[in-house]
Amino acid sequence: MGFLQLLVVAVLASEHRVAGAAEVFGNSSEGLIEFSVGKFRYFELNRPFPEEAILHDISSNVTFLIFQIHSQYQNTTVSFSPTLLSNSSETGTASGLVFILRPEQSTCTWYLGTSGIQPVQNMAILLSYSERDPVPGGCNLEFDLDIDPNIYLEYNFFETTIKFAPANLGYARGVDPPPCDAGTDQDSRWRLQYDVYQYFLPENDLTEEMLLKHLQRMVSVPQVKASALKVVTLTANDKTSVSFSSLPGQGVIYNVIVWDPFLNTSAAYIPAHTYACSFEAGEGSCASLGNLKIFHDDGVFWVTFSCIAILIPVVFMGCLRILNILTCGVIGSYSVVLAIDSYWSTSLSYITLNVLKRALNKDFHRAFTNVPFQTNDFIILAVWGMLAVSGITLQIRRERGRPFFPPHPYKLWKQERERRVTNILDPSYHIPPLRERLYGRLTQIKGLFQKEQPAGERTPLLL
């Protein structure tokens, strides 16, 4: 009997340990999710909405909090209240809210849920900021939330566009926020600057685990600066919208850091991600199948492109055989790269794809065309180079000693001219110059219009 009791206790203890481990990634209690500042939390959301979230023991030097929740492609909703209102909730795959804290406030609550049929795996985090830090989305006039730290993302085959609301200067608890449009001097939000960052996920990896893992590098200011590529810096006078080239099937994370140059403080918006494709079956699904501002002008781009395209043939005009061999070697081997791209994604295909996008879409000139260059790109680049070099070498060896193809017209004319000058036995050597031949032809034509002379003696009498 004692052995059976010990066995039952061991089983109960093992079950308790499993439940405790699950709490790290799930709810700490039924219907209640507890958070800590700066710590990532994994959990699953199910219908019906909502589940309550809570944060305890907020430090007194914190003036506002930014909560954000991420999922791969299923929408989740975060709300200030159990009742969903457009101006107090946000829905998407990357959603968040700003909590402006009241004096003496040490606890914060909000609500989470999903309207989808399937359970949604999420990752969420709370970040705290002080009164010196700018408030992302604090001067929102375009979107529904009063203070909106979210980045709104739209994409099509050609370009991906992100939009965000302007930020405001930081302020203490219990103090009214600075006016957004009272002036444009250095004491207003017009001194703020916005750095737009881009981060590429590993290629050919569309897993949820990979996305949530790399999103952790794009939520706070130090991590974003250390991990991502800064694409452009916007001032308060610029439009808060940036376009990029779409990369279907390639995961990309975007974020914006607002910087106060006067106080040297920063805050991060809520990062947004896209694969430029849909995870639902059908068209546009995720199947495996010059950022300089001057080139954003279509005229400059196409003139430069045309000059480069014409320059190479002009340089090799005197060596048509070499030009033909180089063209076959480089372009022919690149066609293999395009074929590989249909089955194994590579950024090298965008060498031609971006040019086609520029030609077909009138708005593509606004897009930044950064692409990732990762392990598989190095492999395919090596294959491309090997095929090009081997093809060029083979053709040069095969054509050695053979006549040029095709013969150069100028050289043919020059050789013919020299032959005529040096070979006096050539009948063409005795042909009169062009001027004399034209004069003789005119004389013949003139004779056709002269009257025929009468018959008889036409020579003078001999003395």
Question: What portion of residues is helical?
Answer: 25-40%
CATH T-level fold name of the largest domain? Immunoglobulin-like
How do the SSEs run, as a string of H and E? HEEEEEEEEEEEEHHEEEEEHHHEHHH
Question: What form results from the Cα inertia axes?
Answer: elongated
Average predicted confidence as pLDDT: 81
Give the percentage of residues in beta strands: 15-25%
Residue runs with pLDDT of under 50 for 5 or more positions: 1-24
Which strand order spans the largest sheet, edge to edge or round the barrel?
1-3-8-5-6
Main β-sheet, in a few words?
A: 5 strands, mixed
State Rg: 37 Å
Q: CATH H level of the largest domain: which superfamily? A: Immunoglobulins
CATH architecture of the largest domain: Sandwich
The count of helical stretches stands at: 9
Give a verbal description of the structure.
With 463 residues, the protein is an alpha+beta fold. It folds into 2 domains: 24-274, Immunoglobulin-like; 299-399, no CATH class. The protein is built from 9 helices and 18 strands. The protein has helices at residues 2-22, 208-215, 221-227, 298-315, 320-341, 350-360, 375-399, 409-422, 434-447, and strands spanning 32-35, 41-45, 51-55, 64-70, 76-79, 89-92, 94-100, 108-113, 120-129, 151-155, 159-164, 193-200, 229-235, 241-245, 252-260, 265-268, 272-274, 367-368. The radius of gyration is 37 Å and the shape is elongated. 27% of the residues are buried. The model is unreliable at 1-24 (pLDDT under 50).
